[in-house]
Amino acid sequence: MGRIPCCEKDNVKRGQWTPEEDNKLSSYIAQHGTRNWRLIPKNAGLQRCGKSCRLRWTNYLRPDLKHGEFTDAEEQTIVKLHSVVGNRWSLIAAQLPGRTDNDVKNHWNTKLKKKLSGMGIDPVTHKPFSHLMAEIATTLAPPQVAHLAEAALGCFKDEMLHLLTKKRVDPFSGMPQVTGNNGVGYASVSGNDKEETIEKIKLGLSRAIMQEGNGDHHVVNNGKSWALVGSHGEASVMHDVYDPMLSGDHGFRYDAPAYGNDVGEASAWSQSLCTGSTCTGGVGEQQAGVIVEKEVEVEMEEEDGEEAEGRKINGRKGDEGGMFASDCVLWDLPDDLMSPMV
DNA sequence: AAGAAGCTCAACCGCGAGAGA
DNA sequence: TTCTCTCGCGGTTGAGCTTCT
């Protein structure tokens, strides 16, 4: 015996809700509450499935919902929680008053995922792409590493090209192109430039893999030395990342949840402009966005003091960190949610 | 100016958990 | 203990809108 449908499909209206339907549902719920969703459409005079009514109410009609843009703080919360609990949207939404799981999920899928990818961070694991590559590369013989880079390029090329060609920045200088009318033009990447871009991506990826695979955690970015903190992705922190396309007028900064920065801390998600060469310069040299300044190491050392003590209290001292914020003390989450998951 | 491509978000679908008979 | 039913969740879809070519 199969599962019975939640309602008869025949007399049930589907698709967009009309204002009249919204009114009927809202006024019925205002009077009777949301006790039995199966009965609500019948009693409210709606030709809708109960499930559809519930969805409309919870995602749109509820009076306590926010409908505007997500704020930086909300985005930051989403990213941090996502790194801990994964795609458990209802859990994440519960931390954001007025937001629904659907809102959060849509925002993640349409905006945040791309932002993180654009910063060279894998939105699934919250690790820099090059760390992932490096982890794989450590299991390979050197000749295979080059093939890995090639394969990785196959995966990321389209997205990278997309970002580069649509970012409205010159992919190589990192500066917005100035045109006559509005001051900011669009980088047009010709066929040759595209090929050149691909070559740079290849080169950069190969270098990143080689260097990390060799345990060399310093990379050179346009003459500036960057330090990768740790070797297991525990510090997938980007500092001074600015991308005018991805973040609008704001610097978009990714602070790894593993650090447990307070939400209100000024550093996180705050405006942090940087020079073009540092941020959006040649992708090859940028190591696919893996940019962690040495100051991070200092922060980590300092953190060993008071804050580390705080972690001990939470019984999380000694966790290896990894990609998940096992030592994050920000969120009052149940223990089962704090365990690493992919 | 028009068609194509990309993007957003409301809505749908199927499944699993949990309550209650 | 088993079965039925409801609810809630996460993944997916597609209409409508915007941007690009």
From TrEMBL:
Annotated Myb-like domain residues: 9-61, 62-112
BP GO annotations: anther wall tapetum development; pollen development; trichome morphogenesis
Protein name: Transcription factor MYB80
Location(s) in or outside the cell: Nucleus
Keyword NAD: no
Composition-biased stretches (Basic and acidic residues): 308-318
Pfam families: Myb_DNA-binding
Main location per the UniProt record: nucleus
Region Disordered: start-end pairs: 299-318
Superkingdom per UniProt: Eukaryota
GO cellular component terms, A-Z: nucleus
SMART domains linked to this entry: SANT (SM00717)
Record key words, sorted: Developmental protein, DNA-binding, Nucleus, Repeat, Transcription, Transcription regulation
Domain HTH myb-type: 9-65, 66-116
Stretches assigned to coiled coil: none
